């Protein structure tokens, strides 16, 4: 079975690394869309080395080393990587013009970040995710959340957002052709929210908020730059290396697509970019309605929920850590969508005073008949920390698992 990868940015390159290592596909076809350097030898050097994760040889062979790339043929655009034949396409950038069909590619992972709207028709001259289908692919995975530009349009019936291990069972191979793997932050957050929802139920989660302390990405500026015409967020053009930059995240919206119950909760999501190359952190705050009697919601109880989840249903992707971690410890961490920093879990319980006379929707007649005008409701605020490698260890790993899941049902 052949896999197609569109784009050789951070996620595209690491997706290639992962599937080369796992050898889950017989052949890989990568669309770069242009010439690279002086030829395929230069592209091979880009693949061999990585400033964050070291060398491909170390990743594949450890301290023993070795040469993973052989049989480079610049004219044919081919090479062998760890024994896997890889073909590089260097001409088309519009998805509809990429010759997937000619190369027998049925499954494509689009890692460009340029084509994220599932409603754009395949023949759009600016390019579209659906163009891959017109070019011969049967299924397309997107390494980013869907973003529908025209707010009057709804999500197409053949498109779905999936996080492996959370809602991948909702993927229907007879219906879905476009599959978003959400974002790195949504992936981490889903493994933090799902155990709490399963334990407490949506009714007892009064509200939730999250902040992601996120590593820098290639969308940011190395040095200060002049914003484009019409830009409203001037901070995006400030230097990434020496600034903490406030920005936005669509993680809460995307999470509701993966876990629909979240839409019933008041949920806010914020993002702060910091000058590190990878390794990010979600700080999740939940306001939970406590029970007047029964077990209290304390640090031990919250950690027990995550410990049990990490040993049970979510053991393949959720790690419960009792160590004292820093962000570099998470870089390259294998098979972990989320690493719970259990030492930092904390809770506070207090009574929230609810004035019934101020509740909306109650008529003055009903308010006049109230025997009690104030309720004291016990509310626990729980704060949970979850690490994730926003590039390789968490996101690319989860994307790769979803790719294999879709591929196994394709043939």
TrEMBL record:
Biological process (GO), any one: glucose metabolic process
UniProt KW keywords: Oxidoreductase
Gene3D superfamilies per UniProt: Dihydrodipicolinate Reductase, domain 2 (3.30.360.10), NAD(P)-binding Rossmann-like Domain (3.40.50.720)
Keyword DNA damage found: no
N-terminal signal peptide: none
Sequence ranges assigned to domain Glyceraldehyde 3-phosphate dehydrogenase NAD(P) binding in this UniProt record: 1-184
Any matching Pfam family: Gp_dh_C
Known EC number: 1.2.1.-
Source species, domain of life: Bacteria
Catalytic class of the enzyme: oxidoreductase
Gene Ontology terms for molecular function: NAD binding; NADP binding; oxidoreductase activity, acting on the aldehyde or oxo group of donors, NAD or NADP as acceptor
UniProt family annotation: Belongs to the glyceraldehyde-3-phosphate dehydrogenase family.
This protein's name: Glyceraldehyde-3-phosphate dehydrogenase
């Amino acid at each position: 079975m052949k896999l197609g990868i569109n784009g050789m940015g951070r996620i595209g390159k690491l997706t290639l690394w992962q599937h080369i290592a796992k050898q889950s596909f017989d052949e890989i076809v990568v669309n770069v869309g242009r010439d690279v350097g002086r030829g395929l030898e230069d592209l091979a050097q880009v693949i061999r080395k990585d400033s964050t994760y070291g060398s491909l040889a170390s990743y594949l062979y450890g301290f023993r080393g070795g040469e993973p790339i052989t049989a480079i043929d610049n004219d044919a655009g081919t090479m062998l990587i760890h024994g896997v034949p890889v073909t590089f396409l260097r001409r088309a950038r519009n998805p509809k013009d990429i010759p997937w069909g000619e190369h027998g590619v049925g499954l494509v992972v689009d890692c460009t970040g340029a084509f994220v709207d599932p409603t754009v028709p395949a023949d759009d001259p600016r390019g579209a995710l659906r163009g891959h289908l017109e070019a011969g692919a049967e299924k397309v995975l997107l390494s980013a959340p869907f973003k529908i530009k025209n707010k009057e349009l709804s999500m197409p019936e053949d498109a779905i957002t999936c996080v492996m291990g959370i809602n991948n069972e909702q993927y229907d191979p007879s219906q879905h052709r476009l599959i978003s793997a959400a974002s790195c932050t949504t992936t981490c957050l889903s493994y933090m929210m799902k155990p709490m929802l399963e334990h407490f139920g949506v009714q007892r989660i009064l509200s939730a908020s999250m902040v992601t302390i996120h590593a820098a990405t290639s969308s940011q500026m190395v040095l200060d730059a002049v914003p484009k015409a019409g830009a409203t967020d001037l901070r995006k053009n400030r230097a990434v290396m020496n600034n903490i930059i406030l920005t936005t995240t669509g993680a809460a919206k995307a999470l509701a697509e993966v876990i629909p119950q979240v839409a019933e909760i008041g949920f806010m999501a914020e993002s702060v970019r910091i000058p590190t190359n990878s390794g990010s952190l979600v700080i999740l705050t939940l306001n939970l309605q406590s029970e007047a009697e029964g077990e209290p919601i304390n640090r031990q109880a919250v950690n027990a929920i995550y410990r049990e989840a990490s040993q049970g249903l979510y053991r393949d992707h959720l790690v419960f850590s009792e160590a004292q971690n820093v962000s570099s410890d998470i870089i390259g961490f294998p098979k972990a969508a989320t690493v719970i920093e259990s030492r930092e879990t904390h809770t506070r319980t207090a009574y929230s005073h609810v004035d019934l006379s101020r509740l909306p929707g109650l008529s003055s007649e009903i308010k006049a008949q109230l025997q009690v005008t104030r309720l004291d409701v016990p509310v626990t605020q729980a704060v949970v920390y979850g690490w994730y490698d926003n590039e390789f260890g968490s996101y690319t790993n989860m994307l790769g698992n979803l790719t294999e899941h879709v591929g196994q049902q394709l043939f």
